[in-house]
């Protein structure tokens, strides 16, 4: 029978036996949604969604590792793999979300309503996302050694705070853009064949879900390795697993199929035209 075991250094990585049924359920759910999103991406050639698909694979890999960890709680590798992939998957979701807004703005010829030029919008937010990804990834490596878990937890919190700040700025940019385009619409934004408003709603919903999850993670690590959240598995599944699966479902149901390369033809011209109004 599986039981909690310390590492060779006497450090307990887990505070509970990870549930196999729960991990299997979510690895199957994420595998299914990732396959569906990848297929839709391939069919529509919306390659900017590739980071999102990779994020789904990260989630799948993370729950595979949790399944393996049930009988290996004293081994570092299963813990490290599940922690790395589940922690970082949402950062990849965020990258596609940032790129989606830029393409929505260009698709309805409304760059003059954006606080940031469309050609710089993706660059700005994805750069912050990459920084968050690198910081969290480095922290995950420190934490699993067991030598300085407090330092690792602190760095993870810093990485998550970067993600939260970037999402806050992104949300402000998106809200201001939506208000401006509604008060002064372009011809393309009035075209009923372009479902840009549905895509904006999708961005707001998935952004809110990721923000809630990131706030949970900050509190989780801030309360420490002996805190209630890290010591009880149900909190991870409710405030991370369920929310991130919901992100994949919403993204798939309201997938931005209309943002195709053909739709964005002439970006060089648009980049010149879409500079912010003085």
Automatic annotation (TrEMBL):
<feature type="transmembrane region" description="Helical">
    <location>
        <begin position="46"/>
        <end position="63"/>
    </location>
</feature>
<protein>
    <recommendedName>
        <fullName>RTA1 like protein</fullName>
    </recommendedName>
</protein>
<dbReference type="GO" id="GO:0016020">
    <property type="term" value="C:membrane"/>
</dbReference>
<keyword id="KW-0472">Membrane</keyword>
<feature type="transmembrane region" description="Helical">
    <location>
        <begin position="155"/>
        <end position="177"/>
    </location>
</feature>
<dbReference type="InterPro" id="IPR007568">
    <property type="entry name" value="RTA1"/>
</dbReference>
<feature type="transmembrane region" description="Helical">
    <location>
        <begin position="202"/>
        <end position="222"/>
    </location>
</feature>
<feature type="transmembrane region" description="Helical">
    <location>
        <begin position="83"/>
        <end position="101"/>
    </location>
</feature>
<feature type="transmembrane region" description="Helical">
    <location>
        <begin position="20"/>
        <end position="39"/>
    </location>
</feature>
<feature type="transmembrane region" description="Helical">
    <location>
        <begin position="121"/>
        <end position="143"/>
    </location>
</feature>
<feature type="transmembrane region" description="Helical">
    <location>
        <begin position="234"/>
        <end position="254"/>
    </location>
</feature>
<keyword id="KW-1133">Transmembrane helix</keyword>
<keyword id="KW-0812">Transmembrane</keyword>
<dbReference type="Pfam" id="PF04479">
    <property type="entry name" value="RTA1"/>
</dbReference>
């Amino acid at each position: 029978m599986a039981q909690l075991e310390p590492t060779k250094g006497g450090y307990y990585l887990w505070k509970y036996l990870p549930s196999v049924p729960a991990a299997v359920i979510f690895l199957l759910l994420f595998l299914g949604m990732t396959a569906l999103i990848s297929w839709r991406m391939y069919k529509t050639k919306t390659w900017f969604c590739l980071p999102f698909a990779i994020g789904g694979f990260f989630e799948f890999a993370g729950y595979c590792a949790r399944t393996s960890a049930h009988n290996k709680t004293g081994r570092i590798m299963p813990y490290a793999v599940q922690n790395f992939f589940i922690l970082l998957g949402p950062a990849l979701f965020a990258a596609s979300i940032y790129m989606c807004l830029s393409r929505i703005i260009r698709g309805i010829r409304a760059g003059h309503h954006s606080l940031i030029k469309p050609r710089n919008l993706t660059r700005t937010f994805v750069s912050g996302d990459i920084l968050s990804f690198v910081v969290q990834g480095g922290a995950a490596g420190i934490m699993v050694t067991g030598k300085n878990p407090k330092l690792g937890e602190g760095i993870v919190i810093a990485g998550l705070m970067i993600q939260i700040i970037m999402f806050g700025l992104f949300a402000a940019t998106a809200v201001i853009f939506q208000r401006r385009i509604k008060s002064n619409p372009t011809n393309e934004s009035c075209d009923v064949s372009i479902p840009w408003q549905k895509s904006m709603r999708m961005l707001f919903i998935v952004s809110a879900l990721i923000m809630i999850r990131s706030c949970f993670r900050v509190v989780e690590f801030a309360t420490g390795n002996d805190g209630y959240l890290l010591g009880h598995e149900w909190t991870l599944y409710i405030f991370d697993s369920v929310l991130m699966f919901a992100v994949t479902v919403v993204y798939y149901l309201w997938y931005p199929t209309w943002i195709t390369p053909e739709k964005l033809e002439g970006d060089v011209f648009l980049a010149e035209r879409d500079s912010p109004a003085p």
